User: Fold Chromo domain-containing protein from Mytilus edulis.
Amino acid sequence: MTLHMQLRTKKEINWRELCFGQKIFIKEERIVPQREILPNEYRVERLISRKLEKRKELMYMVKWEGYSVYECSWEPEAHLNQVLLNTFYTPEIDDSRLTLSARNFELAIQQRLRGKHNTVIIRFDLDVFRHCFGIENSYILQSVDDFEKLPLHKNWHYNLNASGRGLKIAFPLTVKPKLHMKKVYISEKGALEMKTVPVETLRMICAIEVCTFDQL
Assistant:
């Protein structure tokens, strides 16, 4: 009985070159996948927030200049330049954004003075919060003076009636910044696409007390 074996093709080896240390070049063909060419650099409009991943890596939520909030993304610290990172607690905020944040804050306070719940949720940019208070976590505010960096009206913390009696915010009060990633669905080129949008808020816990105009 004859056995038929399939043997690998024998390679021709130049033993002289191998023994005398001459280089033997082996040609290898590889298929390199084409990658999408992206711009060399994106400009950061602002750093919204940051978080610590399980692998102890800091990630920053970035709003990119010239792109909508739908394109915000979490980026590792290594992707951002040190000059930008150094301004995380002291970001530059223009007057228009400060004014808008102040009006949102005043509106929420006035709603609290007319309501019964101690907790108020305020739409508030988190970099503005850091600019005003120099912190990114929960903060206890002791008096009206703690809000000096926000352009608030003088009567923002109280509400009086025609007789001069009313209610005012009781200090101290606690504010806690929070970032929530909200899912939204949009129509993109005839297809339904899911996006995540950063929603920046302050959760404020405060009591109210009775006051008269001469106590303010």
